[in-house]
Amino acid sequence: MPSSTRLSVWVALTAVLVWCYLNIATILEATAGRITIDQVRLRRWENLPDVANGACVVDTVANACEDVNIHAASSTAFLACGDPAGRVQWFPSSGYQPSTNRPTFREQFFKYDLKTQTRTELKLDLGSLLPEDHDIVTHGLDIYPGKDDSQILVFAVNHARDGDAILIFEHTLGTDVLQLVREVRNPAIKCANSVAAVSPRSFYITNDHYYPRGILRQLEDRFGPWSWATSVQYCSVEGDNVVCKEVSETMPCANGLAVSDNLVFAGDSKNGSVTVYEMENGKPDQLRLVRVVDVGAIADNIKILAGTEDPLVTVFPDGEELPLFLSNVSALGQTVFAPTAVLRLRKDRDFEPELLLRDNGAQLTDMTAADIDPKTRTLVGASFLKYGGFAVCKLPDSVDLS
């Protein structure tokens, strides 16, 4: 081949490679399902004044509380908490998965009595189901009625280094013990984020990534978000078997999850939306899409307001700079602040978002979950990386909870 021809070939090849490099986003969108999300749309609640945060007290003992659920009958908040320093070493949903010589990770669960304003660390009784040195790394949490009014079940996501699982505990109200009754594992429970109980032995989960770890996970994070990456799974325990089934459309980053009667609410933290599903004929493994609600911000955990059954969505109104927060966990709420807000999606207004609370980050920085007890007019907000991991806020009369 003449040298001039070879040069032309190299020039053409170089031009193609340069074009591919400059247009990689377009190529990925066209061929691999990558999507572009309008970031301006996710700033609907940015630069607003604080709302209803004037009577908040930060608990300084429980740290890194990613999720909270209030047991309405007893006005008791249950929290899944942890270790900010440990989460920098190992917390899969945030991409922190380095190797470590740490013998075990042992995070905590707490309860907070809203009537007596008393916090209690809950002791874990693992029985013979798990070894005492088994990793406990908390994330999503839900509660479900027990066999009588004196008991509840606590469903909790656990990120053990040998794989994700849902832990089901029994708890007798008034005690300080969580007794493990089942560890639920299945290949479909791979990047678990939230859990929502449907019965004593069935639940929904969201996976917030497609690949749990490794180079494919790095590529997923580096080049996403992807339209096919995440979804809602329905899992049921049948004797020794665990059966899981994908029951939702795929979405870029499924996160928060809640169940109210026959409705299922699934949040997407990349797309800033909450998708409403209905169980067809009351069957939890058959969901019908009702509508998609644009909440105008990164959406995290979802709770149900007792009495109205309206969803409560915790959002990041100014976005979430996760790498910055992971590098500065000791400074969160001190010199590094992440504004947060709680939205109520009103059923009587076709799930229109309504701002209930906003904080500039001084008290509720990087808040990932919030639940409300209408009887005591108290909001409990939780932050998954912060030292001083939850705050208790008395809501003013101006906040409508009816």
UniProtKB/TrEMBL annotation:
Taxonomically, the superkingdom here is Eukaryota
Instruction: Please name the InterPro entries in this protein's record.
Output: 6-blade_b-propeller_TolB-like, Arylesterase, Serum_paraoxonase/arylesterase
Any Pfam family the entry gives? Arylesterase
UniProt keyword terms in alphabetical order: Disulfide bond, Glycoprotein, Hydrolase
Record family assignment: Belongs to the paraoxonase family.
Q: What is this protein called?
A: Paraoxonase
Q: Which organism is it from?
A: Sporothrix bragantina
Q: What is the lineage of its organism?
A: Eukaryota, Fungi, Dikarya, Ascomycota, Pezizomycotina
